[in-house]
From TrEMBL:
PROSITE patterns: HELICASE_ATP_BIND_1 (PS51192), HELICASE_CTER (PS51194)
Any GO molecular function: hydrolase activity
Source organism phylogeny: Eukaryota, Choanoflagellata, Craspedida, Salpingoecidae, Salpingoeca
Native species: Salpingoeca rosetta (strain ATCC 50818 / BSB-021)
Protein name: ATP-dependent DEAD/H RNA helicase
Entry annotated with the keyword Signal: no
Amino acid sequence: MATVDAADELAARVAAVALEERDAGDDGADDSGKDSAGPTMQLVADGAHGRLAAVVEKKQKEEAKEGEHDHEQGKSRASGPLLPVPLPPSAALSPEYIRARITDEYLLNLDALSVHDPALSQRFWQPSVQPEDLFLPMTSESPYMLQVERDPITFEAKAFRESHVSSSETAVSSMSMTRTVAANADKTYGSTLQYPFMPGGMGVEVAQQMRLLASKKDTHQQESHSADADSKLTQPDLSLFDFPENKVLPDLGDVSAHLPPPPSSSSSLAQQLALAGLLDDLALPLTREGEKDTSSTSTSTTTTAAATATTTERQEGQQAEESSAVTSSAAVPALSELTAAAASGTGEESMGSGGGGGEEEEEEEGNGEDGAGAKEEVEEDLEAALTKTYAQANAQSTGQEQTKNWAITIPVKAKVEDFEFQVPNPAITYPFELDDFQKQAIICMERHESVFVAAHTSAGKTVVAEYAIAMSQKHMTRVIYTSPIKALSNQKFRDFATRFDDVGLLTGDVQIRPDASCLIMTTEILRSMLYRGADMIRDVEWVIFDEVHYINNAERGVVWEETIIMLPKHVNVVMLSATVPNTFEFADWVGRTRKQRVYVIHTPKRPVPLEHFLYVGKVGKADPLFKIVDAHGKFHMKNHSAAVAGKKEGEGKKAAKTGSYGPKKRGNASWGGDRVLYRSLVQMLKKENLNPCVVFTFSKKRCDQNAYNLRGTSFNTAEEEGRVNAIFHRSISILKGSDAHLPQVERIKAMVRHGVGVHHSGLLPIMKELVEILFSQGLIKVLFATETFAMGVNMPAKCVVFDSIRKHDGIQLRDLLPGEYVQMAGRAGRRGLDTTGTVIVLCKGDVPDVNSLHTVMLGKPTVLASRFRLTYNMILNLLRVEDLRVEDMMRQSFSEADLQRETSSQRQALVEGQAQLAVLGSEEFPSDLEEYYTLAVEYLDASHRMMAAILASNNAMRIVGAEGRVVVVNSQMYRNTLAVVLRTMKSSNGPAAPKDFEVLIMVDETSKQKPGQRKEKTNKEESLLPLPVTHLDVPQGAVSHAIVRIAGTDIVAITGEKIPVDKKKVVQQRNATECTMVAQQLQQLAAKGLESLSQLHPIKDLGVKQLEAADAHTRMKALYKQLSGFECTSHPDFTSMYGRLHERRVLMNQIDSLQHQLSDRNLTLLPEYEQRIEVMQRLQFINSERIVQLKGRVACEITTCNELLVTQLIFHDILTPLDPEEVVALLSCMVFQNRRASEPRLTPRLEEGVSTITRMAIEIAETQLACGMQVSVEEYLEEFKFGLVEVVYEWARGMAFKQITELTDEPEGSIVRCIIRLEQACREVRNAARVIGDPVLSQKMEQAANMIKRDIVFAASLYTVDQ
């Protein structure tokens, strides 16, 4: 039968169904002749087009014949037209008519489709009532789930496969990505009941992976329904192995098949591995035990050969691409022979047969059952070898990892010439040419590599973040953008929402589209999601850390480290930072922690160079700017001197005019001087066309005062003032009642109308955002801002002015750090608008000195440093998960980065040391030799202590260092050898170290070494043989000499003998004759023996006054007497045995040291961790087995405030009897941070609550002290500030915001920030109450949160109001 075209066949089948529907419709038609035919024909007619007409006509003729035949048989058949009644034949066969009808009735009226009719798409069976079924257990859920296989490059879906999910793998018991999905309520934020996903740097050991593989294999074999022995072979879970992350999956063929067939005799393990391109990464033995290893030249099946070839090409391309980079993983030799042999299903017989590949294939086809048995054996060997090989590979990688850099720096001058070729289909395009560093980052991201981009301010780092977002949306995954502050999150949400479709925002009080593919949040929220095992993390492809240099923040820097450590392995990171000097070290730590390479990309220079000036005010009639650093970074000393002279001239004229001399006064006089200086400054800026300008001032009060000093000065035109008024009124329209007329709102309105603004944390959030919007639109010309304005806000200016280069950091008044100065100065210079950016330093007092200016302006930025610290919340979150250890978190921290780098080499040295110790065996020594060795070690230690005291004494050094002093040297090169001191020298270990000595020493002529030359150390010579000086070493052959430099600690005995030395001939000229004479005298002294030489006493003869020297000398004499009585010294093989014992002891000490360094005892924070554990055990948060108890579970819910104190308040029933407004008022002491606030007026119940909280805080502080923590009670109590208790209490009771601002001297912004954090704290206490089953407290906290969540405090952000 000829093959029918697919469209014709489809049309024929559908036409038959359509005619059947027509017949059914004719039988059931009513009197009105309403069309009741089914929709099948109309739906398919448009797809069949003209071919349908011929098919229908053919079908009509066939049915006509059948109808005549039925009529002849006497059957009744309803008469009527062949087509449905409303459709004439000509119209029905018209494609235009059919298309129009389908469009009108179905495409535009989806409800008419039968697929939406449940009666047609579902079938129902009435269940039979069987009461006895209630006694039967419920059916468990399916142990399988569908997983998508994606191309790792394009991320396109290639196929779906069924993955076995153990019934025990749930969110509350497993960290696996294959665990079942939790409830929808916990999908975004997670829950403290859930386990986190396995962090990328805390994978299980290979042995555990193998055991898990074996258990899964047994499970699969038990569930197999095939009786064939070959079908029992189970495919291993390849995700357990650490295969190369950039391995490209091969084309799996027809994706429409979706599910691949289960493993069977036709799908061997070797074939599956070959198809996955994995055998080239394995090194497996080809032969069984006792058989000869031969190489195979046979080929696999066509599919396997093609897959292997594809894999080889990809590997070659990757090797060529990464030839200049370091190796990404431990290299394991490839075994292509095993691929062919195992895939062909033959053993050594097929490999050993000669002939070509075609002959072998014919033999394979004819093998039958014999071939099946051989194939099964090979696959069993292969599977067994997998376990062995990966264990070996892990051991080998231990040694190779030490030479592996996880960070790869891309040269700053590397040009990208073929960007279009490397990225032919970019996820997003730009209308401008990208910079090289942006192209480099995009190329790395297209390879699915993590990047660390350190670029200057306004260089264009946002492009890299946007590309990551575009890639995730293209791949239909998620991306998370984190920022250090909430204000930056809001701004980035506005920016990204205008460019991308699916963007959400998660902050403490705002949730906008939490299911979006791009989520913007603070880093604290991401950390909480990771600890709580939020299922949303499964879909995350990228995490963007903006302003990652914020890790240097003393309070919050630990959040970045925790988040990076806790991220699962499948997540890649994009880190954006200002320029820092140790980008490579930080990236290496991130890569080593997450076990993935990180590419470091940084910009060589700013896109808009900066020029730095000093401004001292008017000098005569001039108003000069003194350029101190030009655009090329050159410091101009002459201009600094000119600025100093100009400052003196200006002050002299001012003093002559006012008649006042002497030092300046602060207070009101200073404000007046600032007003004059700033008025002249803004006039100069306006004249030089340097607006818009940002004036950084390190005081909120001074910001407001400086802006107030410019009252009466307008920088905006009438048109601009109108635009300002329109934007202002539209922005405050969301405020209600008196909130729109607050004093701060009125002040800001008057300022911004004239083009002047302020920006600091004391402003209301809506006012800060309004100022930012106006500044970005060029309607604010002079902005007085604090340092936070430079944190990530993309709002460049033409000029930046520093009110001062000194700031108070909460501890002391100091100069700005270079990194701080660069961060703020970087706001100057608008790319594409300005050729240079102008930075001005105001000289309100004296001109800063040259050193300070040079350090601040041209010094190295602050390095990224670890701020890792332990918290109770972190410890409890890790203790509640069995597979995670707090010690591992400490080990993975940036503070232990050096320890991480050395771990691999230390592990290899430990393995080698243990192997050497095994080689030495367990030799039996004389019974007293071990004790002799122990005393000898103690003797040598006492000798070193005595010499250290002698070398530290000036009196002793004059005697020991005298020319000609005879000493005994015991070092790696010379053992108990006499030497003559020639002179003392400064130590090579630094000025604080003991001095060195230049000596003339005896050597054997046959083994003479040049002065200063060192022997190669052997394993036996890692340290001195701890033998006391019982005899002197005399050369056996001809005596010669050497002039060498020794350390002072190499001298073990100081004699009273002196040999005359001609310093000029010996020291300067190195006269051979004179030196030989001195050596001969040494030989004569050595021949007499040690007993004949008098030794100087450290106290009596050398004048050492330290008691330690006397004690050491006394101990040496006592030990010497003990050592002389051992019988082992008379053994003929004593020296050899003693050397072997020493070698073993040295090796054992090295092993102990390495084990200590690799153990948890070597962690810096381990003592503090043990102290915090003891605190929580005493407070019953955990038990003696360190299992988290109910108190600990409650504390895990608290992240906003002090978890220990809040939990104690809950369990002591302190909060439940209080009213909701009283509870939230008392909790404000844990979120309010300002140290200086007016004293609140409290009600008696609030005063009692304050005293109770203070008392319980003292109890916790005393418990910490008792456990060894170095935090005093006073320091602990400083964490709790009650300055806003009254304000929050009245706000919860409904008082207007304008009235509560009159109850305190705190700025409005601080009040709003405190209340917003309180709302989150209330939700956390509510959740904690639910954990312990306290509905009363839970309801009160819900009510308290609703009471404070109102009006201007929770007004929508201007960046999100449209969303």
